[in-house]
Amino acid sequence: MPLLTKYEIKLADSPFWTFAIHDGHDIDEKLLPYQLLNEEERLREEDPFTALIAELPCNRFIMESSRFQLDINRTLDDAIYLKPEQAWGLNVWKEDFPLELISELRNDHREIFEIIESKIQDTIAQFGYFIILDIHSYNAKREGPDQEINMDTDPEINFGTIHLNQKWRPLMDELINFISAEELNGQAIDVRENVKFKGGYFAQTMNQLYGDYGFVLAIEFRKDFMDEWTGDPDYHKIMACKQLLLKSLTVFNQYFHQDGKE
């Protein structure tokens, strides 16, 4: 049976991956009659334009279905937002949402993870290591479009590193030092760890399974590259985020090509 949940994988001759698992916006036509949210309400909590940021010269996994259909960054029990407390207080599904569709979505969750694991194993077999940049974005103006961003609590870039094997701490320090010395949109970059987010279920699972060979780094960009209330993008800022990650790949390449690292 084909999956209800849609995604795209683009392979490259590279040990690196970018993932945009919350970029998707689509709801399968079989599920639409049971959805309570409109497109604007969904977009507010999705991560639009992260697939554009993820367009780097490496392997890519892009989720095309909305997290409001299936969220692979949640456990199997929480991957379908059946209760408001799972979805920022939003009622996502009608009460008559069929159990057979819920079962299909949960099977999607299992199968997608199996496919991802297979791809990571292939990457490790070819290169001996892997790195996944798990790209997300977050809202910093929840009270309204004119809210002032709290610079103390809302870093420009948040790295979720709590699930990383400590063997990668030196590399993470190199990466943070590199990014801190760069600029984004003409200003020094405020990059911090585990302030807003610590890494979700996807990063936790893959780091537990394959943490000896590489890591999943959860990256949360503050939604400075768009109007988080209207969804309107600033493509110049989107490209600046993309270029920053492109430069960051050099840090990984240099690390793994040091003596004894290959």
UniProtKB/TrEMBL annotation:
The organism's place on the tree of life at top rank: Bacteria
Protein name listed in UniProt: N-formylglutamate amidohydrolase
Species annotation: Sphingobacterium tenebrionis
